[in-house]
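hey can u check if this looks right to u? its 139 residues, i copy pasted from the old doc so theres a chance i mangled smth
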Amino acid sequence: MTPKEILNITKPLHLLYVEDEKNIRETSLELFENFFDTITTAENGLEGLHRYKEGGIDIIISDISMPVMDGIDFLTYVRQKEANLPVVIYSAWNNASSMSACIALNIDAYLLKPIQMKNILDVLEKVACKTHFKNISKG
C-alpha cells in the first residue's frame, strides 16, 4: 500500500491518542495530524476512557505507563466493549510483562518511543487495512 492509499483510509478516521507526557503528546500530535483529520487527546487512561465513552473512535494509540489509570487498565475496558477496535501501544516500555499484557489484549501493534516514520507507516498500513476490510464487510 502506498502512503497515499494509507492516507485515503486513515484521514477520515477518528483517532484517540492517550499520552501523559505533554512534550511527547504535542510532538506526536504534529505527526498524527498528517494522517488523521479528527484527533481527540487524553492525558491519562481515565481521561481516555471518558473520551472513548463519548463514542465515534475508530483507532486508539495509547501509552502504557500513565498516572491515574494506566494504558493496560484503560485498554482492558475498551476490549471488553470492542474486541476489534484497532489499538496501538506507543510506549518507552519494552519489558516482558507489558508485552504479555498487550498480547492478552490483542493489541494491533506496539511502537517504541521515539517514533520512527517507517514504523508508523507500517502500523498505519496494518490498521488501515483492518479498518478498510471491516467497513467493507459492514457494507
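Residues 29 and 62 are 12 Å apart (CA to CA).
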